[in-house]
Amino acid sequence: MSAVWYECKVKYRKTDDIGTQKVTTEPYLVDAISYTEAESRINEEMAAYVSEEFKITNIKVANYAEIHPFENADRWFKSKVSLIAFDEESGKERKTNMYLLVQANDVKEAYDNTISVMKNTMGDYTIPAISESPIMDVFPYFSGEEGDLEQIERFNALKGSKPELVAVGDMGENVEDLVETDSE
């Protein structure tokens, strides 16, 4: 199952390097199953970083096919990758675009990182565009660290939870026996 990424815009009061405060709105990415879970997760993640009030102003599904973090990089870049396929019926090349979010320090490094991510691709591709993304941080469901066991268990519990519906007649009791009455 591929991850669904939600872009959440969060508005909060930010203190800059010289100590002045200003209200800012910044986008973050969250891996979630639904909009509701994305809202819950971004609230949980931002509560750890922001000491004052914050407001979630927008949540939308992000159009990234893959997210690739790299060590020693602090910015996120959006790489447009065009996969090239040959259509045998029409005899023409067909391009399918996908977007990768790649972590890097500059555009050249983002290009190099995109090439390293795509190195095992069987087909031909081109990279027509790379631009710096406004995304401030990415919060994956699983980061691959040992501490994620709790999140994996929580994910499996959410995924496996189904409300059990029991018909009144299937309980083997009368409805009157289930209702407590105060006889005093």
Structure description:
With 184 residues, the protein is of the alpha/beta class. Helices cover 23% and strands 38% of the residues. The chain has 4 helices and 8 strands; from the N terminus they run ββαββββαββαα. The protein has helices spanning 35-49, 107-117, 149-160, 175-178, and strands at residues 5-15, 21-31, 54-61, 66-68, 75-87, 92-104, 124-132, 138-139. A hairpin with a 5-residue loop joins strand 1 (5-15) and strand 2. The N and C termini lie far apart (58 Å).
Overall outline: globular
Uncertain parts: 162-184
Percentage of β-strand residues: 35-45%
Number of strands: 8
Q: How many DSSP helices?
A: 4
Report how far apart the termini are: 58 Å
| Structural class category | alpha/beta
How would you sum up the major sheet? 4 strands, mixed
Question: Notable features of this structure?
Answer:
4-stranded mixed beta sheet, globular, single chain, 184 residues, alpha/beta, 4 helices
